[in-house]
Amino acid sequence: MELRLPTLLVLLLGFLLLPSCSKPKPHLSALASEPDWSRLSASAPSLLPGDSANSPGKGEGHYWREHPLRRTSPERPLAGLRIAIDPGHLGGRWARMEYRWFLPSEGKVIAEGDLTLWVAKKLERRLSEWGAEVFLVRKAAEPATPLPPEAWRGLAEKYLDEGKNLNLESRDNFQELSKEEQIRRVAEMLFYRVAEIRARAALVNAVFRPDLTICLHFNAGDWGNPEAPRTAKVNHLHVLVPGAAQPEEWALDDVRFEMVQRMLEGTYRVEIPLAESIADALAASTGLPPALVPGGAVQKIGKNPYVWARNLLANRLYESPTVFIEAYVMNHPETIARIAAGDYEGARKISEKSFTSIYTDYAEGVARGILDYYSPVK
Description:
The chain is α/β, with parallel strands linked by helices. The protein has a domain at 62-141 and 194-374: Zn-dependent exopeptidases (Aminopeptidase), CATH 3.40.630.40.
């Protein structure tokens, strides 16, 4: 007898919810809470025949929209759609701590968190013009989490003493540092890589409750010393959907819970075609080729060469369908020159080529991909 995916997932859910004689201590990732597995029973029906996948609009069991809109207004084709935009990283005074900055030989410091915020604000304006209700997860280079890096020192020392695998960064990268420096480094990572992402997820899931979440990022090659950076040889683009969790990640109770919850709620039914639509529109607006192997623990999904699956805290915690975008390699010479030119109207000649603003190309590509998926022209 052949078992289809919905049947297999329901059987998996039954196994996960079986009572046990003795409850083992949960194995959790950094700052995670013990999951309540009984919550998954409410999500299971979404995969059964006759479920919300076959009904228009928002599905039973979740608040996000599952089907495209009926375009009722040519001026406001996204009316009724709720969109959260998450500008990746922090930028500003936090850029050095995040190690997402470098200083080109000529010009000002380039920080990813500042670039993503520029794109996010332009994207917000365009989507709002088209009638969508848009929420920026951050509007400035300041964290959503209320606790500063120093607040995590005690936990960082505890993790280090226990030899805990934080699933943040290889311990080999800072093993030669003094104990004090190791504590500082881990406390900072807990702040900007974990607490900050969890605080953003709380905003998205409990306050904004959008139909989709867009995470904006710029890619980068290894630039070495940020004050004398190496440049990347290839410029490219890729788009990520949640998935491809590795065995060591599945071993963590909270990660396993969150991945199973996404499967049961069926976010992939939106994420994959939406990611493909955004990828196609971004490829057209940026002219960038696909990243053949984007890096990290990724897995090819679907036929679109730009779209991959990867398990990231940012795309796993957000409950609504989530698309994570890495457009442009920010230490590529052409990208550096276009960033240095700033935002502007029309086209300018940069490095002997004519370009519109890099921020406009990024934002317009994402906006067009969302429009093409949610409000296609009939």
